[in-house]
Structure formats: structure tokens, C-alpha cells
Amino acid sequence: MNIMLFHSTQGLRPAVLQAADRLRAAGHEVWTPDLFDGRTFDTVEEGMEHNEKIGKDELLKRAVLAAAPYSERGLVYAGFSLGASIAQTLALGDEKARGLLLLHGTSDIAPGVTAEDLPVQLHVAEPDPFETDDWLSAWYLQMGRTGADVEVYRYAGAGHLYTDPDLPDYDEEAAEATWRVALGFLESL
């Protein structure tokens, strides 16, 4: 599979590169664009401040430019938190998208979007301050209306970015379970 993997609001941290290596070891080709031009942040708040300075439109433009050279191959879009929201936006706009793997995040869904039979898998903490139960219920229903084939996995007690071993949110058991399921998902595409 060809995978475009987007980083969180904390930037292209070692955990993203480690995730890409894990995916490559499973036989996938993976690209990890740096939407923050080398900047990384120790906290979500610092990253969000930087993200707001760049602006949503500019971030999406950077993501589209990163994916464009590979989109003809049929990409699986994937991302962590902010990167998941970017991946979702791109996948729902790319008729050649092969799948969508969301780790720790989702995004608004534009009215009238269709994604007939697009395989989608979401992994998220439970509870998650950025992905509340009400939000996830509404998101799930909206994704269903697009025609996507959606699976949601919740990890009780894990922190928001629980797959990043360098952050306080890290939960080894939840992270390993996520990767087992996600690798199976990618293998099925």
C-alpha cells in the first residue's frame, strides 16, 4: 500500500517516523510530509498556536502539494490527531483514495461529500478531550452518509496521543493493540 502519513499538531516527531518505519517493515511505501517546516513542539498547546499562525487553508495546501505526486497510485491517507483531520479531508476529496486510517482525530465533513465504500478505521482514546462522545457519534453518522465503510476502536483510559512513546499520554498496551488492528486493516486493502 502507498501511505501518506501526516503528523500531529506537535510536528514531525520521532514517533511519526517510527510509525512510518513500522508500516514500511510491513511492506508499505510511506511518505511523512513535514507540514511545519521542521518545527516540533513539546505540548499540544504550543503546536496549536503554531498551527493557528499557519492557518487551516495553508496547512491543507501543503498537504495537497505533498500528496499530489503520489495520488495517482491510490493512496491510503493516514494521520495523527491534526494529521488525521488533514488525512480525512484529503481522502474524502480524492476519488482514487484506497483507505483512511485515523489515529487520535477526525474532522468536519463537508455537506454532500461522497466516499462510496471507502474503508475507514479510527483509533481514539476513551475519553478523549478533543474527540468527545457526542462529536464521535455525529462524525460516525456523517461518515456513514458519505458511503464510507467505517470502523471505530476506542481505548479506555489512554491519553489523546497514546501511540507516542515520548509523551505523557503514551499507553503501551493501547498503542500495540492499535498497531495490530491498523496493520490488519492495511493488509486487507
Explain this structure.
The mean pLDDT is about 95. Helix content is about 40%, strand content about 20%. α3 packs across α4. The protein is built from six helices and six strands, in the order βαβααβαββαβα. It has one domain (about 1-189): 3-Layer(aba) Sandwich (Rossmann fold), CATH 3.40.50.
Please give a handful of descriptors for the protein shown:
alpha/beta, 6 helices, globular, single chain, Rossmann fold, Dienelactn_hydro, hydrolase activity
Shape summary: globular
Main beta-sheet annotation: 6 strands, parallel
Strand content: 15-25%
**Any idea of the CATH topology?**
Rossmann fold
* CATH H-level superfamily title: Alpha/Beta hydrolase fold, catalytic domain
Radius of gyration: 15 Å
Number of domains: 1
What level of helicity do the residues show? 40-55%
- Tell me the name of the CATH class: Alpha Beta
